[in-house]
């Protein structure tokens, strides 16, 4: 048997066998050395993706916490003194705020949650959100029983202007004859009167601590202002910031906002338009108006 013939190949056959061996070696090398590294790389990518996702979730969580902290907090407040800006932050519409301001402009007071909704026509959802923070004066939430025997000598007879005494010269004894004014209130009234060098308007009695609107009305029934304090009024539409801050209850920030609003409106047409100024103390408007004029 001639074995030699079985191992003799032509040049073309030898090239094919060599190429086959190279392919086998390449496949083996790829399987043992390259493929495991590729698999490790894929695992690393998967692991990195998981880490990135966890980090993103953590960042989103921190952002949510910061956003929650930045939300304006609601503190207890008297709904009678809601300004335009305060109403906006509470979620009230412009129409609802305007209804409230129009009601207060009549010198009327809101004394219950139900009355607040009747006046503003605010929705139940918004009311449920803000009403827990309503804070009414003690004389509204805890009214004291009327004292039927208090000052039995008090007369309800309507007095003429000539019969009324001058509030700027009234004594403590004379003030105490008014229903609702005792020794402490009469002392506060006289002390405040001396501090401001006499009353210019009865509206200034609101600044005397503890006096309710009802007691102020009783004082007006017995007293008048025959010698009102002179006030130099400031022109609202030309006043500088330095002039505005001389008025009580107006600081530099409010003065800046007044001038900014005045520029936008090309001048105020009414002093009552100050209620549209951001941060303006609406509840002090009547007192502030005493020091202003329109030219």
TrEMBL record:
InterPro entries per UniProt: Endo/Exo/Phosphatase_dom_1 (IPR051675), RuvA_2-like (IPR010994)
Annotated transmembrane regions: 16-34
Key word Transmembrane helix present: yes
UniProt xrefs under SUPFAM superfamilies: RuvA domain 2-like (SSF47781)
Protein origin, superkingdom: Bacteria
Keywords: Membrane, Transmembrane, Transmembrane helix
Name of the protein this chain belongs to: Helix-hairpin-helix domain-containing protein
């Amino acid at each position: 048997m001639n074995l030699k013939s079985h191992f003799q190949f032509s040049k073309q056959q030898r090239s094919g066998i060599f190429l086959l061996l190279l392919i086998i070696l390449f496949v083996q090398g790829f399987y043992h050395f390259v493929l495991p590294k590729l698999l490790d790389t894929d695992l690393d990518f998967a692991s990195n993706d998981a880490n990135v996702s966890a980090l993103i979730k953590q960042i989103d969580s921190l952002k949510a916490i910061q956003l929650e902290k930045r939300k304006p907090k609601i503190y207890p407040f008297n709904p009678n003194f809601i300004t335009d800006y305060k109403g906006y932050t509470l979620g009230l519409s412009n129409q609802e705020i305007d209804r409230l301001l129009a009601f207060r402009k009549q010198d009327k007071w809101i004394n219950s949650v139900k009355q607040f909704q009747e006046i503003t026509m605010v929705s139940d959802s918004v009311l449920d959100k803000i009403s827990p923070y309503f804070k009414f004066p003690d004389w509204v939430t805890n009214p004291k029983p009327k004292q039927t025997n208090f000052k039995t000598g008090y007369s309800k007879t309507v007095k003429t202007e000539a019969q009324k005494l001058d509030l700027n010269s009234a004594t403590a004894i004379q003030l105490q004859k008014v229903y609702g004014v005792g020794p402490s209130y009469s002392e506060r009234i006289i002390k405040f009167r001396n501090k401001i060098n006499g009353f210019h308007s009865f509206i200034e009695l609101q600044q005397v601590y503890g006096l309710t609107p009802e007691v102020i009305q009783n004082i007006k029934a017995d007293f008048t202002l025959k010698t009102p304090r002179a006030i130099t009024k400031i022109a609202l539409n030309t006043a500088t910031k330095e002039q505005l801050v001389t008025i009580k209850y107006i600081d530099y920030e409010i003065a800046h906002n007044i001038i900014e609003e005045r520029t936008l409106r090309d001048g105020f047409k009414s002093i009552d338009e100050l209620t549209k100024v951001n941060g303006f103390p609406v509840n002090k408007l009547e007192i502030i108006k005493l020091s202003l004029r329109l030219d």
